[in-house]
Structure formats: structure tokens, C-alpha cells
Amino acid sequence: MSDKILFVDDEENILQSIKRELRKRFEVFTACGGTEALDVLRKDGPFAVIVSDMRMPVMDGIQLLTTVKDIYPETVRLMLTGNADQETAIEAVNKGAIFRFLNKPCPTPTLAMALALAVRQYRLITAEKELLNKTLKGSITVLSEVLSLANPIAFSSALRIKDLVVEFARLLQLTNIWQFEIAALMSQIGCITIPTDILNKIFANQAIDQDEEAIYKNHPLVGAKLLEKIPRLETVAKIIAHQFLPYEAFAGFQDLNEDICLGAQLLKLAGDFDTLRHRGIKRPQILRQFEEQTGAYNPEMIAILSQLKLDSEHELTLSIELKDMEVGMVVEQDIKASNGALIAPKGMEVTWALLQGLKSFSRQVGIHEPILVRVKQ
């Protein structure tokens, strides 16, 4: 009995009766009222299911279940009440997003069946979350790290902006943050079709001709095409496809949902910010450039960027030998093999895969040492 259930009622005798009837089938907790229920959820959670009475002093059942929905969205919510008027039921469904509405007195077999279905629903929700957070995101992260070894200039940028995009999404209180994280990690996947010499020019801010510019600007559409057939990544693909569009352009799109618009705006701001920073431009100057380009960037995101604490502003630069390099360090100067091949560009975070690649290059070809890196203080 690992899935915990919380019953909330202002009548202690009802709670004790429910606990006696269900204790052999479920792990039951009880709380006398909404305030106590929130304390139990915080101290003893997570809970698979919460079952609340409607009429309670201080905080009624609808208020409680609405609060639970906001704070613990995965917990499945049921209402068990003797006040089963239609208006109460409608309000409970609309505000508390309840899974079942049960009437008192509720026969134990009926209640047990409803709880079993609620627990199954909870397991489906958490299994979905685990799939996204561990399986899908983990696979994408591995793919991104492998691509960063094959094409370090483009994909190291994606690894860098990922944390920035996630922090922005958190501060903007966006839902489904996993989509924005994966969009950032895969934002450069279309670059696999771009010749390395063009990418070198782009990231070094060197002049390119019209054909080369057209090839580069097409990479978001290429990336979206590669990802759109993967289940659950349809929104991610559309975010990537629109990442070069200026902020003002989204006013003309009626068929794009908010996640796509905000995700694309995040990628544009974070990607341009990262590119400019790694050309040696300081944040105040970058912010001025962004503000001067009216309509190019989301003003709310620019305001957040001006206040955001950046890890790189609290890091120490060291000159080390390869044997002393650790995962999590950030490359401060291009790492090149003895034959001149670029292995890791400035700004790339050291991952386990990169570290293994550097060791292999060191043994087979040799690399230039010492290596300049940044580490968090």
C-alpha cells in the first residue's frame, strides 16, 4: 500500500469510520478540515488521492480541492458530501477539477471502487510524468550530447541556452516546462545539414554571402521536420520552427497556441543572448541592443533578463590539465587537437561524453594543454 489517500472532514467520527473500513485496502490518512489537510499534504505527501467533504468551517471542500489542484496537481481529487445539489457539483467540477463526486452515505464497495479508479488515474499521471522527465528528456539529452561531439559549435550553444530557457519558463510560471527544455536542447538539430565552415563564420561573426545566410536561416524548419514525427514533440517542433521570428510577428498568427509563441520567443532571446555573450559582449550592452531593436524581443523577457542571476557571473577561471578536468566545468577557450581540429568550443559545458572524447583525442592525436575553464565558486 504505497499510494496514500487523505480523507478530509470536520466530523472526527466519520473519519474514524472510513479509516476502519478501508485500512486493509488502502493507506489512509485523515484531517479535520482544510487547514489541517494542507499541513498533512505538506508533511506526509505525496498523496495519490484526496477525498474531501463539502461543508466545513473556515475552508470548504471546493476551496480546499482548488488549492490542492494548484499546489499538488498530480493528486487526484474526489468529493464526498451529503450536500449534493447541482450547483455544488458543477462548482466542484469546474474549480476543483474533481475526478469523482460521491454522495453521503456512500456504501463501502462504491467508495472502494472509486478510490481504486482514482489511484489508477494517479499512477497514469505519474507514469506520464516519469516518461517525460526521465525517458524522453533523458534520451534527448543523450542525443544532444552526442551531437555536440559531432558538431560542437552548434550543439554546445543548445546545451548552454537550455538552463537559461528553463529558468525563464519557471519565472514566467509556464506549464509543461519540459517542452521548453527539450526545444532548447534540440533548437540546433537542423544545423546537421549546414557545412561546418558556414557555422564557423556565423558563430565567429564573420561575413557570409546570401546563399550561406539562406542555408543557415533554414535550419529551424529542417529541425522541426526531423522532430515533428516523434510522438509528444509536436509542440516542440513548432517552437523550433519559429525560433527566428521577431516578437512582433506573433501578433499575426492566430493558429499558434501560447506555448508555441512563448517558446519560440524564449529561444530567440536566449539564443541571441548566448551568441553575443560568447562573442565577449557584456550583458548591459546586450540589453541595450535588445531594447533598441523594437519589436524583435518580448519586452517582459528582456525585463526578466536584466534581473536574472547568471551562473557565469559567479565563476572562477582556471588553467588546468586534462587530467584535472571535471564534469560541469565550462570551456573558457576553444579546445583543439594537436592537428588543429576543434574539439570543444568556448562556452561548452563539460559532460561525461565530452570528457571521454577529450581523453581519446589526447591519447590518439594529442590536444593543446593547459585548458582554460570556468568553475562555480
Quick structural summary:
By secondary structure, this protein is α/β, with parallel strands linked by helices. It has 15 helices and ten strands. The protein is 53% helix and 11% strand.
Verbal overview:
- With 377 residues, the protein is α/β, with parallel strands linked by helices.
- The chain folds into 3 domains: 4-125, 3-Layer(aba) Sandwich (Rossmann fold); 151-308, Hypothetical protein af1432 (Orthogonal Bundle); 313-377, Molybdopterin biosynthesis moea protein, domain 2 (Alpha-Beta Complex).
- 53% of the residues lie in helices and 11% in strands.
- The chain has 15 helices and 10 strands.
- It has helices spanning 12-22, 34-44, 61-71, 86-96, 108-150, 152-171, 177-185, 196-203, 210-217, 219-227, 234-241, 258-277, 283-292, 299-307, 352-364, and strands at residues 4-8, 27-31, 49-52, 76-81, 100-103, 315-320, 330-331, 335-336, 342-344, 371-376.
- The strands form 3 sheets. Strands 2-1-3-4-5 form a 5-stranded parallel β-sheet, sandwiched between helices. The chain has a 3-stranded antiparallel β-sheet with strand order 6-10-7, with no helix packed on it.
- Strand 1 (4-8), helix 1 (12-22) and strand 2 form a beta-alpha-beta unit.
